[in-house]
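$ ./design --mode recover --in tokens.txt
reading tokens...
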């Protein structure tokens, strides 16, 4: 399975979120987080399923602190769904694939 998850940086996040006409799902994570390791395969599956329909990215909060502060990331994993540059949904902690997919489907 190809990995369609975009690795984001502070700059790339702005470009991905504000320049996209598609929904953008961003997984804010840290390498030391066990919960992030659990949800990462789900994020990859979503990226595979929504290839060409939505952008799916992940942002390491330790390397991209500006974005973590900008979006008020206080707990990880945090997943934010954007559409037209605006936050549509936000999940903190473990979240089901079903909930994420339903939220994306509503924006398509």
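writing sequence...
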């Amino acid at each position: 399975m190809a990995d369609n998850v975009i690795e984001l940086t502070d700059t790339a996040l702005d470009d991905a979120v504000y320049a996209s006409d598609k929904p953008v799902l961003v997984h804010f994570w840290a390498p030391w987080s066990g919960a992030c390791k659990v949800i990462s395969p789900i994020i990859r599956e979503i990226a595979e399923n929504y290839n060409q329909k939505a952008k799916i990215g992940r942002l390491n909060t330790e390397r991209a602190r500006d974005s973590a502060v900008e979006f008020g990331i206080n707990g990880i994993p945090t997943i934010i769904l954007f559409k037209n540059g605006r936050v549509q949904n936000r999940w903190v902690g473990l979240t089901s694939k079903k909930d994420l997919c339903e939220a994306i489907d509503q924006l398509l």
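exit 0
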